[in-house]
Amino acid sequence: MSKISSAIYEVHYMDTIASKDSPIHRIHPLAKLIVTVAYIWFTVSFDKYDVTGLITMVVYPVALFSVSDVSFSHSLKKLRVVLPIILLMGIFNPIFDREPRFLLFGVTVTNGMISGLTLFIKGFFTVIASYLLIATTKIESICYALNILHVPEILVTQILLTYRYITVLLSEANHIFEAYSLRAPLQKGVHHKVLGSLIGQLLFRSIDRASSLYDSMVLRGYNGNFRHSQLPKARRQDYLYPVLWCAVFAVLRYTRITDIIGNLFV
Amino acid sequence: MSHNHIICKNVSFGYDKDHEILHNISFTAGHDDAIGLIGANGVGKSTLLRILVGLEMGFTGEVAIGEIKLTKKTLPRIREKIGYVFQDSENQLFMPTVYEDIAFAPRNYGLDAEQVEERVQHALDLIGIDYLRNKQTYKMSGGEKKLAAIATILAMTPDVILMDEPSIALDPKNRRRLINILNSLDHIKIIASHDLDMVLETCSRVILMSGGRIIADGSARDILTDKALLEANNLELPLCLQGESGTAWRPSPSPEHMHL
Known about the structure:
The structure holds 2 protein chains of 2 kinds. Helix content of chain A is 73%, strand content 3%. By secondary structure, chain A is mainly alpha-helical. In chain A, 25% of the residues are buried. Helices cover 34% and strands 24% of the residues of chain B. In chain B, the strands form 2 sheets. A 6-stranded mixed sheet of chain B has the order 6-7-8-3-9-10, sandwiched between helices. In chain B, strands 2-1-4-5 form a 4-stranded antiparallel sheet, covered by helices on one side.
């Protein structure tokens, strides 16, 4: 499978897993959105040297992965592009902050190493939480939740249509590059001399496809406002879900839960 | 239901003034009319359909659907009455599942969840694709996509159905299924197609176009059996009629009948 084909497959794969039926998938999208935002907020609010406190936040992704039927290993594979960027964010901390903190097996651990590590963990947890949201909630449902929160309609429609048009752009790119590679079998990639015209072709074709899709939408009554499917009324568990998780996050954030558990065994 | 008709009067259209695609097109269509729009490539069939549904607005002349004259102001009302099936179903289906795609129009017309559900179910039943209800559109075959595309417009309960090359890229079984569905629909239908056999089976009337003009407008039987007229306009008799004139395609002899 070419890189573009696999990218199309990845987008469709996200649609497929978001349509699964698990206890997490059945939770109201607004509840899941609130929990995700709260999780990210609590996670990034940890002190830059508080690694042990931060690690306790792993409870949320662990719980979701075990209940939602979303594969952890597959998720890591998908996030492999983002992980180096997260790593890069904290890579300079050990260089700029060299104050020693403690010795570990004879090696001096500096403040920079600790803050770099927390930065990586924070980045990793927030990306995983966002991934879990889109893996357990259809994009239309997320947009519906944003609508309830009175996020401007134009922004919600932009998110939705951008998501839908990604596959249009990718499939046009795939057609062009397949046609090219069939007639240039000895070349690796696209020759720079024709790259410009291929990208131009891609632009025009994508505009053409996007126009046709837009025509199809306006012919079926679309007037700029995306009417989302009405979700079933929120149930008791939909209210309990964000309340309980926010309570858990607050406990993990504001109490030294690791110390408390440690003291039980001392 | 006298309001169910299309009036197309002296319609001309071109993307620039010196190059007209349609010249002085005039015809009317009444209730239950099933019209086959035929002609060689590039004669303006698709453009005419796009004008009828208001996707091309720079035309001269007059177009009316029912008692509503087609103008920019009346577009939403006109489009509520017309279902347009695109040549390429990929361009018609943009929601993740068949259900969501069929429900798109009823939701846009402000129906509540219960009515939307009824409309979707009705459209699925009419086409006989209830089994595709929750299927993701990108996973479907070309034939399934075409049937789903037709269901999306039926959920609008239109008076008029316009189709651009509906049988293109369908296998024989799906093509037959499409013909049966078209014959079961009680709407005004205009079907632009090169598949003259399908037109013969589904349309009572044919409009033959050439060079952006209407060359002939009459009963399907009369026009589709007129070999000279069809050939003069870069078409040929439907395959099912070619046997009668002795020009039918015949299979090559099987190996046992071949004398090498």
